[in-house]
Every structure is written in structure tokens, then in C-alpha cells.
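Show me a record, fold above all:
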Amino acid sequence: MGFIQSFSSTSFFDTLISYGGAFLLGTLIGAERQYRQRTAGLRTNALVALGASAFVDLAQRLTGNDGAVRVLAYVVSGIGFLGAGVIMKEGMNVRGLNTAATLWCSAAVGACAGTDMAAEAAALTVFVVAGNTLLRPLVNAINRIPLGGGGLEATYSVMVTTAADKADTLRDTLVDHLELMRYPSAETEILERPDDTVEIRARLVSTGAIDTDLDAIVAHLERDHDVTHASWEVQTQD
């Protein structure tokens, strides 16, 4: 009887639109993360957006805008615990910060959808996807700019991601390709990832590699070998 008395087709349809919008927009954000084989992929981002939408929508229906504002505060703080789970420290490097930030943004998208701000949720989704895609070439370009000063030492690394059962073979292939281009590796390491893939990282002996050479190496590996993603980076230190 309680359900019959409290049910409103108008409110239910409004909630359905909020859920559907949050799910769709969260899926769009997660698709990019899934394509790049990140820890939190399509399903995680879609569920985060959907969950945030559900909590905010429920609070708004029960207690109005004041209740929704209070729940929003809990969503903002609560998503931090989920984001912390995808951040991993590997030696001196910290991985997963961008993925954690994307989860935070997915929750914001869901919260907008839950408060019936569909246009704002869609606009935020566009900005999040743009930040994860359009800014990537700019980040790579900035990282490759040589820093002035003779006291700086550069360390080049080439990274490839592949299936776990192909790790040993691909590591040998990576080392052979680097040596063929006269960039011998000082060391290689295989880092396990939670999605049954591994990242093979080769640190080069050279401290003055040419960008186009490394671009050619990673492009060849990604095109002609069992590699889901290949990239390179340079780190400088005093």
C-alpha cells in the first residue's frame, strides 16, 4: 500500500531520465578509460555516475534541495575513498592519479544528472573527455621539451602494454628493437596490472635520445606486435 500511495508516474519518469542520463554520460567517460586500459574503466565510471545520481535524486525527492546539497557533500568526500583504490605507487612513480580524478568527475556528472541538470551534466562530460584526450598531445609535447642547464640529466623510458602470457617474448622484442635503433636498455622491468595485462618498461642507457626515433619505435610496436599501448617518456633530474 505504501508503494501505491507514494508512487507518482511524473516523479518516476523524472528519476528514470536522471538515471539514464547519468548512465549514458558515465559510459562515455569510461569508454575512453577502457580504451586506454586503465584500472577504472567503462563499468566503474558508469556505476559511479549512476550511484551519485541515485543518491542525489533520492535525497531531493525526500527532503528537497536542502537534502540534495547535504548528500552532495557526502558524494564528494565518499568518492575519494574509491579514487584512492586506483592510485598505485611503483618505486618513485605514482600511477592512477588521472584515473582517480576521472572517477571524481564522473561522480560530478552523476550528481548533475540527479539534480535534473542534464545540460550541465552533458557539458561536464564533454570537458572531461576532452581533458583525457585533447590534452594528451599537449602533455606529451611539454614533457619532451628539453630543459636548459648543463646540470640536468635525462632518463628515457619506453613502455609497452601487452597480455601477461606474451610478456617475456615482447620484452625481448622491445630490447631488440631498441638495440637496432642504437638505444640499448640499461634495465627492463615487468609490472603486473589488474586486468590480466602487464606493462614492460625499458630504461635506456642514452641520455640524449631523438624524439622521432622513439616515436618510430613505439609506433612500430603498437602496429606490428601484440601491443595494446606503447609510449615513451623522459624524466629529468638535477
Notes: The mean pLDDT is 83.
